[in-house]
Amino acid sequence: LEVLTGNCLPGVSREIQMANCVATLQAAVPILEANGMTTVVELLNSTVDHPGYFLNTVEDGVEMVRRVGNPHVKLLLDIYHVQVMQGNIIQRIRDSFHEVGQYHFADVPGRHEPGTGEINFRNVFRAIYDLKYEGFITAEYHPTDFTFRDLELVRDLATFSEEE
Fold first, then answer.
1. Kind and range of the H or E element at 102?
2. Pair 30, 70: CB distance under 8 Å
3. Catalytic residue check, 42
4. How confident is the model at residue 149 (pLDDT cuts 50, 70, 90)?
5. Is 2 designated active site?
6. 43 DSSP 8-state letter
7. Which position among 33, 113, 134, 140 bears the catalytic label?
8. Which of 9, 18, 58, 155 could form a disulfide with 92 if both were Cys (CB 3.0 to 4.6 A apart)?
9. Which residues pair with 53 in a beta bridge?
10. Edge-to-edge strand ranges of the sheet holding 73-78
11. pTM of whole model > 0.85?
């Protein structure tokens, strides 16, 4: 179950907003547990696509998930948004690995398929592979052509052998 935090509230401190997000997620935990579900809280960039969005850094996402303190609440780390807001994607993936429940990807700029922008997806996918991630990695981009060649490209970028 993917959830969002919403925008920053004028006149309300980040500390109070963080506490409210944590309390809301903690209140959802019994429902999540009873139904065998996990929720992933998505961080978004607040500089290009979602001005004013509250959860806009990996570090705040990790803090939120850790404060909730339940394996049914994880972070959705969107590689596109991380690159726009912070960069240093691979280190942030490594630092947040235990709190992440899903990854999204798109290239920067433009939110298009891998290979259209500045992100070295072979290295990013390799970092995720090396961590032995077993969850979902989801394409969330606007393709630049509709021949589906991008699906083969993504498969090739994200396929590794133990010898590599």
1. strand 100-105
2. no
3. yes
4. confident
5. no
6. P
7. 140
8. 58
9. 7
10. 2-3, 39-42, 73-78, 100-105, 136-139
11. yes
Residue type, 44: L
Three-state DSSP at 12 gives coil
Catalytic residue selected from 2, 15, 33, 42 = 42
Q: Are 141 and 113 in contact (CB under 8 A)?
A: yes
Instruction: Give the end-to-end CA distance of the chain in Å, rounded to a whole number.
Output: 34
Between helix 58-68 and helix 14-34 the angle, nearest 10°, is: 50
Cis ω on the peptide bond leading into residue 109 (within 30° of 0)? yes
The answer to whether the beta carbons of residues 101 and 72 sit under 8 Å apart is no
Nearest 5°: the CA angle 20, 70, 95 is 90
Helices within 35-148 (DSSP H only)? 58-68, 79-85, 89-96, 121-130
Of the candidates 155, 126, 143, 140, which has an alpha carbon nearest to the alpha carbon of residue 77? Answer: 140
Mean pLDDT of 134-148: 90
DSSP-derived letter for residue 66 is: H
Tokens of 60: 């705040």
Question: 44 and 56 in contact (C-beta within 8 Å)?
Answer: yes
| Tens of pLDDT, residues 37-54 | 999 999 999 999 999 999
